[in-house]
Every structure is written in C-alpha cells, then in structure tokens.
Design a protein that fits this description.
Layout lengths: L1 H30 L2 E7 L2 E6 L8 E5 L7 E7 L5 E5 L1 H4 L5 E4 L19 E4 L11 E5 L2 E5 L4 E2 L4 E3 L3 E8 L5 H4 L10 H35 L20 H15 L6 H19 L14 E2 L11 E6 L6 E12 L2 E3 L5 H21 L9 H8 L32 H13 L4 E4 L6 E4 L3 H13 L1 E6 L3 E6 L8 E11 L7 E7 L5 E7 L1 H5 L10 H13 L3 E10 L1 H15 L6 H12 L4 E12 L3 H10 L3 E5 L15 H14 L8 E4 L1 H7 L5 H9 L3 E4 L4 H15 L2 E6 L5 H6 L2 E5 L6 H4 L3 E3 L4 H41 L10 H11 L2 H9 L5 H6 L1 H16 L2 H15 L4 H4 L3
Parallel strand pairs: 14-26, 14-29, 26-28, 27-28, 29-30, 30-31
Antiparallel strand pairs: 1-2, 1-3, 3-12, 4-10, 4-12, 5-6, 5-11, 7-8, 8-9, 13-31, 15-16, 15-25, 17-18, 19-20, 20-21, 21-22, 22-23, 23-24, 24-25
C-alpha cells in the first residue's frame, strides 16, 4: 500500500519541481542581466543586477531598463534632464521628465566619478510610486531630494543617450517590488470539487469498514465456536470469541486496508500526467505561434488547464494588449471644418457587423434569394478613397484627404489657420529627431506615440521638424509657391510639461520676427475651459467633430494658441523661474499654479484624431468570445478622454438610475455599456457601494474602467471573482497588470513590448491577444471535457472495484480475504486502469478545433452541461451503483434489465 502512494506523491513532487524550476530560470535571466557599475578609478564595468548594492554608481544607456531604484546624478543633457518611460509601472505611454540636482550636473563622464563621495539619507522602503523624501549630503552641503530625481526599477530610459545614478533601493526594497504581491497558489474548481468527492469516498470507506468489523465481531462471538475447521481452540487476538470487540477493532484496520481501493490514489497523479501532456500540446500548437516575434504559447502552470473551459469573465488591459500602441494620424478638425476621409477600425468593424446583420435578416427571410453583402462591396461603401493621391502606407500616418495633401491646403478658405495648426503640430512637443542616413529623412523619439504621429503628420503636410538644440527647434516648411523648403527656427523659451493631472502641454516660442506665442495641446475639456471670448469661434463645430471622432474609437486632442506681449511674458517668466528653482515638496504645485496663469485666454485652432489600432485579429477574437457567452471588461491605465464622466458626488444615484434604466428596457437585444473613471471607481469600490456597482456591471454587455491604477485593477478583479463566484481570467502585458493577473483565477500574460513582468506572473503566456480565442475555445474545451470524463471514470472504476470486495466479504463472513490476487490489486490503480485513461485524457477529441472555432455558442451550452456533470456526481453515483448490483448480484439483474 505504501509503494503506490510513494510513487504517486513522488511524481507529483517531480512535476511541481519542474514547473518551479522554469520560473526560477526565468527569474535568474532577469537577475543576471548586466548593468554598468563604477568599479573604481573612473572605470565602469558589467555587474549582474542581483549583485548591485546600495551606494553603487550605475550608468544606464538609452532604451535600457533601470535595474534598481536610482538617484539621478547627471545625464547626457547639459541641464541634467532625462526622459523616462513608466509604462511598466502605471501603464501611461507618455514619457516623464526627470531632473538631476544642479550640484551634480558636472559629473557627466566616467572619470568624474573617480573621487565621487556623498551620503544619502532617505525614507524606508515603501510601495508609493509617486513620493520620495530624502536628502543628499555632498560637498558639506545638504540638498533635499524629491520624486523628480528618482528613477524607479522597470522604468526605461528614452530619448537620452545615458544617465548616471546612485543605487538607493535594490531587490525587494525597490518600489515596484514593494507593489508586488505574493504569487498565489491557484487550484482549479474541478480539483476542489474532486477533493470533496474524495472526502465522501473516505467516509464511505470508514462506513463499510465499520460494517465489516461489526459483522466480523458478530461472527467471532456467535458463529466461530461452531467452526471446527478453523481450530477455535487455538485462540488469537483476531479470533477470540470471548473478546469480540478487540477482534472487531483489529478487523476494522484490516478492512480499511482492504477497501482502500475505494480511494483512487492514482487519480491525482494521472491527472497531473495528463495536464502536463496537455500543456505540451498547448506549447506546441503552431496556430498560437507568433511568427513576427518567434514566440510560442506557453502553459507556465498545468494546474489550470480545465479552468480555461469554464471562464465566465475576461478582464483585459487595453494599451499593448488589445491595441498596438502605435498611433496613426487619421482625421483632424481645423477652423471648424472636418478633414480626413478614411474610416477607423472601429467604424469599419461596426459597418461590417451592420452589413452582416442585414445579410442575416435577408437570408432568414428569403433563404433562396442569395442576397449577400460581399467584402468588396463593403470596402467600397465604407472606405471610398481618393485614388488620385494614393501612395504606399506611412507608419503613423493614415490620413487621406486631397484638400490638405500636396499643398492643396493653401487653397482652403482658412489657409492661415491651417498653417498655424500645422506649426503647432511641428513645434509643441519635446521630441528629438534622428536623421536616417539612407533616405535623408527623420525618425522621432517622442514622449508618447501620439506626439510621434503628430510630427509625421506635420511632415506629410509640409512642415518637417528637423533639428532641436537646447533652446530652439527648426522646421523645414514647404509651400506650393516655392520649390525648395524654407528652414525656420523657433526659440523655445519655456516648456510646460504634460502630466496626467494637467492633461495638457504647452510651449512658449519666439519666431524670427520676435513675436511671442504660446502653443497648447491637450484634452478638449481642459482646453475649452481656457478659451477666451474671442477664441470660441469654432468651438461648437469642433465639439461635434470631437464627439464623432470619439464614437469612432479615436483618441482626440484640442489645439489652441495665444499671442503674448513681452511685458506680460517677462513678468510671468520671473514667477515661473522662482517656482522651477524652488526646493521642497510643493515645487510641482507651484509650477502648476504658475502655468495656469499663462494657459488662459486661448484661441481654438482645431483638434486631432489619432487611432490606436487594435492588434491583428482582436475584433474577431472578441466577437467569438462574446458568442461563447464570455463577458469582457477593459481595465486600462491609459487616459480615455471619450469616456463618460460619472460625477463622484452622486454615485449611488447614478448606479440606481442606470439599474432602473436597464430593467425598464423592453428590447431583449438591447446592450448597455458601463464606463467609469479612476475617481468614480475609487468610490464604487468602497464596501457600502461595491456590491451595487457589481450588480450593475454584470448586466452590462461591456464594462470599461479607464485611468485605473494597478491596485484598482487588482481590486476590481477580486470584486468580480468573489462577487460572481465564477471563473475570471485577467490578461495584460505590463508590470502594472501583474496584480490583476495574480488576483484572477487564471492569469494570461502577453509577451509584448512592455517587458516580461506580466508573463512571469502569469499562468499562461501568449504573444498576441487573438490567440486567446484558441486557448479558451479549443484547448479550454478539450482539457475541460477530458478531465471531467477522467474523474467520472476513475470514481466509477474504483467504487466498482472496492464494493465488489465488500460484497465478497459479506459472503465470506467478513474474513478479510480478498477475491483478487495481491499483485493485481497492487497494479490496479497505478498501471492497469491508469494508462488507458491517461491516453484518453491526452489524445481524445470529441470535436475538431475547426468546429470549436466555428460554433463557440454551442460549446457554451455543452460547457454548462459539462459543469453539471463534473461538479455534481449524482448521475455518476447512480450509474455506478446500478453497475455494481448488475455485476455482483445475479438475483437483481432481471429487475434491472429495464434500466
């Protein structure tokens, strides 16, 4: 009995060790990445991340991740600034500007650190990403430190050749690790239900063992003295008629061992073997292999294979998961006039769906008419293009409109406003141009993908941003009247940086004539609030255009400007310099207050609309998953200006009214969407409101939570998981999605452009969102059915085997003898009945993958039936008992023939 048990436990341990070793290897790959560290005498050399210590001086180069939390000492820029991408931390795509202390700006090369010494005193390690308290003691002076000098681990250096930094926190003390949570131990619901059945079988084992021991005790007391052939005169403890209770107790132990075959000890190891082999099929599935990146699907843990077939709600990140995070300039509104004839992917998908619905209605009403809306007709209807100006596609620019292209904008009624619009695109930014040697053109390193798309658009319209210095930008302007471009320089006097709180960015420039301008771009709600009375000429029509762009799934920004007088500017600039050079925790607040003084009385110029295209196959994947009855929530840290803003002071009324509206809706096919922002969500997740919020959300066809923090993503996931009691799946591609991935029943990581943090915390890893369809609909269906059938079969065979032993015992006076050979009984669970079922659990397919993908709604109905059979074993018990009686008792067979 011990040998099979040891074999089973040993295999389970080996399987868990194998999967843990894979995770360990991936962790070590990260820990062994090399960083350039000061070795002494101004020499920098490679050192593994895991060996970095507090106080080390580190040099990080462009497009590299920061290995630890660093204090910025200096950068390749003279003023000590650097640009940091924090997408892994907060999901925001715009770059953050960090500034070194002026006292350390001179430490700008390797040799300058030869005799560098200092002392940093700071706060204890904590999880707050946006605060830091400390000071630097250098050259016998003490300088206060704030978050603008801190470079956090897992951020990436962008648009900066290199930086030097001093290590502050390492390993688990770093802020991103402090935000992490312990990886939870996840088990499938089928396994949990299987445990309950094991408990039932154990109780049955104890019960029939008690029955056997009572029967043996009675036989020992009353019948054994008459059995001369067992020599009752040689009394032992096991056969003592004078002490039947002792005999009965000892026989009870014998019966527990004999009937122990009721417990399928090989079930767990068989399921483990099947799951590992199923995981291998998932890993080797060529249909989930991404050829562009060379990345296959990966089942990082095989414990949850069957959970894939039970998913009810999908919680997904947006940027980088559903979308490519590559912006294309698609449309614009200038001087109240809309430009751009192409349709967005959202509009095309909606048109296709409408055409499909019309086609289905026609087909259902006149099945023999053969009327269909073809793809060619659909493209003609919704993508009519100006073929005269067609040319090869440009990355970042999908705009088509002959009224603006090729210099035709100069013939428009408001040509001066259009030129100003183009200049704002080309000047109001912090990007850096990089010349391409082969073509002579430029690529741009921008703070955000939107900004890069604006510069490409400006170039295509005739204004090419070509050079930046510390104080100026230069633009090559092409006009229809001149053959050669004219290079114009604009002096950059001030840059008012974009922040998530300000939702706008401004630059103050001076042209060659000495005229001062403030160029501003930002969220339409922010810009419109700062317009002057004379600057609202195009507000009404622009608002209408922005609404249309938002409904088409486009990201919008408003553009405005203001002419400045020198006296006003210099007075303001003095206040701005004071705020910029102030030392203390209120520096950012002072800068924001001073900036507000200048960003007012603006004149509206127009608005832009860029498209963050969905990843390949995402619309079709979402459609299939919706057909299968899955609910999809989008939890994004990116801004969504087109979202409906629910007032945070009246959440209860908003939820109540929305719930009542849904109840009163008479159309059974009506679909509702719930859109909520970060501030409102913080109230909705409180204990007194979260259940009302969940009740409203679950009856909506789609839920979008925008501007949410990583912690809120995890809280929403926990609310859905615990509130609905159904299987939840979270999918994301960045470190800000880790909490959500770990909190869900199933975590799926996408190995995208944001690093591998999401993959390393996940249960399954795929290269693109579209592979989720096959993972759930095909592999989820197969694994769920195979595991459910295996469990039912195992319980059936073991109950049948164990109860035949019990039936034989009843006929053998509960003597403890076995009807089967000992070797057969030893091998019954481990080999004889396990290998066939393992083969079934690995290779059997009830339907092909093509059928799975073509009819996901039918699989949903089957899944519900399968759940009832896997979770409730009444049917299995009934069939088992009938077969036992038919096998063991010929007397009752005639009565059961009808069954």
């Amino acid at each position: 009995m011990i040998a099979p048990l040891a074999f089973v436990i040993g295999l389970s341990m080996a399987k868990e060790a194998m999967e843990d070793s894979r995770r360990f290897i991936q962790d070590m790959k990260v820990n062994m990445r090399k960083a350039r560290v000061h070795k002494g005498d101004g020499v920098f050399g490679p050192k593994p991340w895991m060996k970095l210590r507090v106080g080390d001086v580190v040099k990080v180069e462009k497009d590299k991740f920061f290995p630890v939390d660093l204090l910025l000492v200096s950068s390749s820029y003279e003023d000590g600034i650097c640009y940091v991408e924090t997408m892994n931390l907060d999901g925001e795509t715009n770059l953050k500007v960090k500034r070194a202390l002026e006292v350390t700006l001179s430490l700008d090369d390797d040799m300058s650190f030869k005799d560098f010494t200092g002392k940093i005193s700071c706060e204890d390690p904590n999880s707050n990403l946006y605060t830091f308290v400390g000071n630097l003691e250098y050259d016998r002076q003490i300088y206060p430190l704030d978050p603008s000098q801190i470079l956090l681990r897992d951020s990436k250096l962008k648009n900066t050749a290199y930086i030097y930094g001093v290590v502050i926190f390492t390993g688990h003390d770093s802020k991103v690790m402090q935000n992490g949570t312990q990886s939870p131990s996840k088990r499938s619901r089928v396994e949990k239900q299987m445990d309950k059945i094991i408990y039932i079988l154990f109780c049955l084992l104890v019960l029939i063992s008690l029955i056997s021991s009572v029967g043996f005790g009675l036989n020992t007391r009353f019948q054994m003295p008459q059995w001369w052939y067992v020599q009752p005169n040689k009394i032992a403890d096991l056969h003592d008629p004078s002490n039947p209770f002792s005999s009965a107790f000892l026989h009870w132990i014998t019966a527990l061992i004999l009937y122990g075959y009721l417990i399928p000890i090989s079930l767990y190891v068989s399921i483990e073997v099947v799951k590992v082999l199923q995981a291998m099929f998932i890993n080797k599935d060529t249909h989930m292999y991404d050829e562009e990146s060379g990345t296959p699907a990966q089942a990082r843990t095989s414990n949850l294979n069957e959970e894939l077939g039970q998913v009810d709600t999908i919680l997904s990140d947006k940027t980088g998961t559903l979308t490519c995070n590559q912006m294309d300039f698609l449309k614009c509104s200038i001087a109240g006039k809309a430009y751009g004839t192409r349709f967005s992917e959202v509009e095309l998908a909606a048109a296709r769906q409408m055409a499909l619905n019309v086609d289905n209605q026609v087909f259902e009403s006149t099945p023999k008419s053969g009327v269909h809306v073809s793809e060619i007709e659909l493209e003609t209807v919704v993508t009519c293009k100006d073929k005269k100006y067609q040319k090869p596609p440009i990355n970042g620019f999908s705009f088509e409109d002959s009224r603006l292209m090729h210099g035709n904008w100069s013939k428009e009624p408001n040509a001066d406003v259009i030129l100003l619009f183009f200049r704002i695109l080309a000047i109001c930014h912090t990007a850096i141009p990089e010349a391409k040697e082969k073509t002579g053109g430029f690529t741009y390193e921008a703070e955000s993908p939107d900004e890069g798309a604006f510069l490409i658009a400006a170039r295509e319209f005739g204004l090419e941003f070509c050079k930046r210095t510390q104080s100026s930008v230069f633009v090559r302007e092409r006009y229809p009247s001149s053959k050669k471009p004219i290079e114009r320089g604009y002096k950059i006097l001030n840059v008012l940086d974009f922040t998530s709180k300000r939702k706008r960015m401004s630059v103050i420039v001076q042209d060659k004539d000495g005229q001062l301008f403030l160029f501003c771009k930002g969220a339409d709600s922010i810009i419109f609030d700062r317009l002057s009375k004379n600057g609202r000429m195009y507000e009404e029509t622009t608002t209408k255009h922005l609404k249309d762009y938002g409904e088409g799934g486009l990201r919008t920004l408003a553009l405005a400007y203001r002419k400045l007088e020198e006296v006003e500017y210099f007075a303001w600039n003095n206040e701005f310099i004071k705020a910029k050079t102030s030392i203390g925790g209120d520096r950012e607040a002072m800068l924001g207050k001073v900036s507000d003084l200048m960003e007012r009385d603006l004149i509206l110029v127009g608005a832009t609309a860029v498209e963050d295209k969905p990843q390949k196959g995402v619309p079709q994947c979402i459609d299939k998953l919706a057909q299968a009855g899955l609910k999809i929530w989008v939890l994004t840290g990116d801004k969504l200006e087109t979202a409906i803003n629910i007032g945070s002071d009246n959440i209860v009324m908003q939820i109540t009214n929305a719930s009542q509206m849904i109840k009163l809706e008479k159309d059974p096919h009506a679909a509702f969407a719930l859109i909520i922002d970060e501030k409102t969500l913080s109230y909705a997740l409180e204990d007194d409101l979260k259940h009302e919020f969940l009740n409203l959300a679950v009856v909506c066809a789609s839920v979008i939570c925008c501007r949410v923090s990583p912690k809120q993503k995890a809280l929403v996931t926990r609310l859905v998981k615990q509130g609905t009691g159904k299987v939840t799946l979270a999918i994301g591609d960045g470190a800000n999605d880790v909490g959500m991935i770990q909190e869900a029943d199933i975590g799926v990581g996408i190995s995208g452009v944001e690093g591998m943090q999401a993959v390393m915390a996940s249960d399954f890893a795929i290269a693109q969102f579209r592979f989720l369809e096959r993972l759930l609909v095909v592999h989820g269906h197969w694994c769920y059915k195979k595991i459910a059938q295996m469990i039912c079969y195992f319980f059936y065979k073991n109950i049948a085997f164990g109860l035949t032993l019990f039936y034989f015992e009843a006929l053998a006076s509960f003597s403890g003898q076995s009807i089967y050979d000992d070797l057969y009984m030893l091998l019954f669970n481990v080999i004889l009945t396990s290998l066939p079922v393992i083969s079934l659990g690995v290779f059997k397919q009830d339907v092909s993958s093509e059928i799975c993908l073509q009819a996901p709604d039918n699989l949903l109905k089957f899944s519900e039936l399968l759940k009832s059979r896997a979770h409730h074993v009444e049917e299995c018990w009934t069939i088992t008992w009938i077969h036992i009686y038919k096998f063991a008792n010929p007397i009752v067979q005639p009565a059961l023939q009808g069954l």
